[in-house]
Every structure is written in C-alpha cells, then in structure tokens.
C-alpha cells in the first residue's frame, strides 16, 4: 500500500509542484523513513490510518537514534508534505501531521568575509595561468550577484545581458530570477571569454555553459569549493570558507550598507523573507561590535 501512495506522491511533486529531481528524491526519502517505521511498529497500518500519536512516536524514535535536529526537521517537513498530498487527493479527511512539532533549531550565523578579505583572495589568484583568469571571473561573479554554487556552475552565456547589466539565473525549483551584475564582474567575464574560453575545445552540449574546465567540461561544485579553499589558504584567511561564504558576504554587505530586505530577498532567490532575515542578525552583531570599538561611552 505504501509504494502505491509514494508513487502518487512522486507524480504530485513532479507535475503539480514542479520540484527538481533532487527535491523529489529528498521528499521520497523522508517519507520512506516513516513507512519503514510504521511497517516495523504497526505492520497492518495503512497510510490513511496513521495517527498523530504514531507520527510523534516516529519523531521520538529519530531523536533517540541521535539524528541531528536539522535532519529531524527536514524529515518532518517531508512527512507533512506527504499528508498534505493525501488530504488534497481526499485520501484522508483529517491531517494527522498538523500537530507534529518541528524541533527548535539553533540559528547558526554563517561565516562572512570582509571586503578586505575578498580583495586579498582576488590578489592571491595566479593570473599567469589560464585558470587564474577564469577563477577571477568566477569569484567576481559570485560576490557581485550572491549566487549559489549550483547557479555558478550552471550559468550560461545566453543568460548574460552585459548592456543592461543583468544576468538571468536558474535557481532552486528551476525558478528564474534577474540579478544585477557589477562592471568588475562583467569585465572579468569578458576577459575570460575573449582570452581563455575561446581557445578551449568545447563539446556542442556545453557550448553555452560559461565557466568550463581546461577540457571544455562544466565545472563541478567540488571544483568551485576547492578553488575557494585554496585561495583562502593563499590569502592566509583563517575562517571556515566555502562557496556559500561569498553568497553570505554579498547579502551581509548589502544589509550593512542599508539595502532593503525585500530587494536582497529577490536577489538571493529566497522564497521566504524569514530566510533573508538571518542577515539582519549579522548586521546587528556588526553594529554592536562597531559601537564597542568606536563609541567612547559604550559599556
């Protein structure tokens, strides 16, 4: 019975919610965990017979296994989506997941680079090598636009609009958004295209992909991670840095400069404003630190 409902749930996520393959797999994985638990604890229980109490027992079992709160929250989110689907399809008349509580998560502030640290990383690039020109263009683009690493690796030439100064990005859930791009980033992209990329042997399938390896292949997320880690080491920056750090720095610097939160939300492609609000917390820490360092009467 569970496999039948999971098949319908998969079709619902793909067709009605238009989720990416990655998101669909994550949801199905989460519901499969519930299905295994119910199958072991209540073998004769069908999906439409599951109670709130049984769902709570499943969550307690996850906690007892030592599964992190973040993972528990993700699994609960998948379970809630499944029962919303059953309700939509009128397979159930009451949603047992409505009262299911998500564990409280500690809000961790991401690492942020100062503008001076970003400049140090850019200066650490070896421009005598072909990949140096490419890497400079990648970092300038990431910082200028606040892109996710998948958005950088998937960026296409046809998505660049140099004249008006915008790029078109395909983000989570295949949603597109237009983001302004700075002159420094456009200049570095042009240098890379006209001096490096044009000399690569590029398979037809990748002819529109902007950032490529020396073999004309799209760069992997891991490769971008390696490039940034290596440059941080060369620049002697002792922080836990990843490609996402540039995205965090982009948003933080905008908020610190007085940018409107809604505008930052749009540029980052956040579905909810609450996700963007984390940067206001960073800003408050920055303001407090500024007071402590420079205000003679602050205690």
Descriptive account of the structure:
- With 299 residues, this protein is mostly helical.
- The protein has helices spanning 2-16, 21-41, 52-64, 69-88, 115-123, 130-145, 149-153, 183-195, 221-234, 243-256, 261-268, 273-276, 278-294; strands spanning 160-161, 166-170, 176-180.
- The protein has a three-stranded antiparallel sheet, with no helix packed on it.
- The longest helix has 21 residues, at 21-41.
- The chain starts with a helix and ends in a 5-residue tail after the last helix.
Question: Any chance you could write out the topology, listing elements then pairs?
Answer:
Blueprint: H1 2-16, H2 21-41, H3 52-64, H4 69-88, H5 115-123, H6 130-145, H7 149-153, E1 160-161, E2 166-170, E3 176-180, H8 183-195, H9 221-234, H10 243-256, H11 261-268, H12 273-276, H13 278-294
Helix pairs in contact: 1-2, 2-4, 6-8, 6-10, 10-13
Feature tags:
299 residues; mainly alpha; DNA polymerase, domain 1; 3-stranded antiparallel sheet; 13 helices; 3 strands; 57% helix; 4% strand
Quick overview:
The protein contains 13 helices and three strands, in the order H-H-H-H-H-H-H-E-E-E-H-H-H-H-H-H. The protein has helices at residues 2-16, 21-41, 52-64, 69-88, 115-123, 130-145, 149-153, 183-195, 221-234, 243-256, 261-268, 273-276, 278-294, and strands at 160-161, 166-170, 176-180.
Indicate the CATH architecture of the largest domain.
Orthogonal Bundle
Q: What's the total number of strands?
A: 3
Low-confidence stretches: none
Relative helix content: 55-70%
Largest sheet, spatial ordering of strands: 1-2-3
Radius of gyration: 23 Å
CATH topology of the largest domain: hpI Integrase, Chain A
Q: How many structural domains can be distinguished in the coordinates?
A: 2
Give the overall form.
elongated
Name the CATH superfamily assignment of the largest domain. Intergrase catalytic core
Strand proportion: under 5%
What distance separates the N and C termini?
65 Å
Largest sheet: 3 strands, antiparallel
Q: What class, by secondary structure content?
A: mainly alpha
Mean pLDDT: 86
Number of helices: 13
CATH class of the largest domain: Mainly Alpha
Name the helix and strand elements from N-terminus to C-terminus, one letter apiece. HHHHHHHEEEHHHHHH
């Amino acid at each position: 019975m569970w496999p039948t409902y999971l098949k319908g749930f998969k079709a619902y996520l793909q067709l009605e919610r238009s989720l990416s393959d990655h998101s669909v797999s994550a949801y199905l994985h989460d519901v499969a965990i519930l299905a295994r638990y119910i199958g072991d604890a209540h073998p004769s229980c069908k999906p439409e017979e599951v109670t709130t109490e049984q769902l709570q027992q499943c969550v307690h079992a996850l906690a007892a296994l030592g599964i992190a709160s973040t993972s528990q929250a993700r699994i609960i989110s998948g379970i809630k989506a499944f029962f919303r689907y059953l309700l939509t399809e009128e397979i159930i008349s009451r949603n047992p997941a409505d009262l299911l509580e998500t564990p409280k998560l500690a809000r961790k502030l991401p690492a942020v680079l100062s503008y001076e640290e970003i400049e140090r990383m850019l200066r650490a690039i070896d421009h005598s090598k072909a990949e140096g020109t490419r890497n400079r263009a990648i970092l300038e683009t990431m910082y200028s636009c606040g892109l996710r690493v998948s958005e950088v690796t998937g960026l296409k030439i046809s998505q660049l609009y140099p004249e008006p100064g915008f790029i078109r990005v395909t983000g989570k859930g295949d949603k597109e958004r237009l983001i302004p791009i700075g002159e420094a980033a456009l200049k570095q992209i042009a240098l890379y295209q006209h001096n490096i990329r044009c000399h690569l042997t590029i398979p037809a399938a990748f002819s529109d992909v902007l950032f490529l390896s020396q073999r004309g292949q799209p760069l992997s997320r891991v490769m971008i991670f390696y490039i940034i880690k290596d440059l941080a080491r060369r620049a002697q920056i002792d922080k836990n840095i990843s490609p996402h750090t540039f995205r965090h720095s982009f948003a933080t610097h905008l908020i610190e400069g007085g940018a409107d939160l809604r505008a930052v939300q749009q540029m980052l492609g956040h579905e909810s404003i609450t996700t963007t609000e984390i940067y206001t917390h960073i800003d408050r820490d920055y303001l407090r630190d500024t007071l402590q360092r420079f205000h003679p009467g602050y205690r």
